[in-house]
Amino acid sequence: MKRIIVSVTNDLVTDQRVNKTCLTLSNAGYDILLVGRKLKHSLPLEQKPYKMHRMKLRFTKGPFFYAAYNLRLFFFLMTHKADVFFSNDLDTLLANYLAAKIKGKKLVYDTHEYYCYVPELICRPKVQKVWLFIERYIFPKLKWIFTVNDSIAGLYKSHYQIEPVVVRNVPMKKTFDSIPFKSKAALGLPEDKNIILLQGAGININRGAEEAVLAMQWVENAIFLIIGGGDVLPELKKMVKELGLGQKVIFKPKMPFADMI
Questions:
Q1: Is there a contact between 38 and 56 (Cβ–Cβ < 8 Å)?
Q2: Does residue 122 belong to any structural domain of this protein?
Q3: Which residues of 179-195 are buried (b: 16+ CB within 10 A; e: fewer)?
């Protein structure tokens, strides 16, 4: 059975796209090992039909984190057998590219966003140049590339004359008969309101969350439930307080998928 090592920089708990990738490949008959990192407050990993490994790192953010993660990932890939390396986003690509080149393995790249031009990098030109250098050096050499929608695929094509294959973020078809559902009351939510849900580990600036909170001023008979984390959460909580939306916008920490649904 051929083995694929899939890597990502998060803690593997809430990334539904990567989980869907691993499940699809596992169902196709591949031996999957998913690699991420373990944070101080990471939730326990749920049982999956594929293997998972989380690395503990001294640094958790900033340039030292990305450098430490890629260095650890590189040595992990070099010392573990695999037929294919599967890199998710630019922050795992350097380690995957070097390991694949040295070991003569295939490399698949899934870019979940227009990485070098996200709001967090546009306002930090020096940091953006570093990521652009990595992308411009490696991207043209890649053979198998995926992304999340046609617009991002078009942008990459305009830059590199390479059009990634689009795999949308659509949930996998599944039944929930075996999952014990919790009531709204058990989750501390009002039972007489509809739920508008925003979930993710990367709820960041200028991704629409700010506008969604503002819009709740005019939404009736519903609550806006925000589950997860991201760098815009402190600003969102400040907006909720200033606008008096405490009864309409509710924040919850990240939780297992079974609890969230």
A1: yes
A2: yes
A3: eeeeeeeeeeeeeebee
Q: Count of domains in the chain?
A: 2
- Cα 59 to Cα 39: distance, rounded to the nearest angstrom: 10
User: What are the tens digits of pLDDT across the range 129-150?
Assistant: 999 999 999 999 999 999 999 9
Out of 129, 150, 166, pick the residue that ends a domain: 166
Torsion of CA 19, 25, 31, 35, to 10 degrees: -30
Q: Which helix (H) or strand (E) holds 78?
A: helix 62-79
| Residue 171, both tokens | 């949930």
Q: Are 173 and 190 in contact (CB under 8 A)?
A: no
- Give residue-wise pLDDT tens across range 187-203: 777 878 889 989 877 78
Q: Which residues pair with 223 in a beta bridge?
A: 195
180 is a domain residue: no
**The domain that contains 12 carries what CATH number?**
3.40.50.2000
Determine, yes or no, domain membership for 7: yes
220 and 102 co-located in one domain: no
> Cα 62 to chain center, whole Å?
17
84-88 vs 3-7, strand pairing mode:
parallel
208/142 same-domain check = no
List the domain range (segments joined by +) for residue 232.
194-260
CA dihedral sign of residues 118, 195, 229, 36: negative
Full-model pTM: 0.83
Q: How many residues in the chain? A: 261
In a domain, 33, yes or no: yes
The number of C-alpha atoms within 13 Å of 20 and in the hemisphere containing its C-beta is: 13
* Same structural domain, 233 and 119: no
Asked if 19 contacts 7 with a C-beta cutoff of 8 angstroms, the reply is no
What residue type is assigned to position 140 of the chain? P
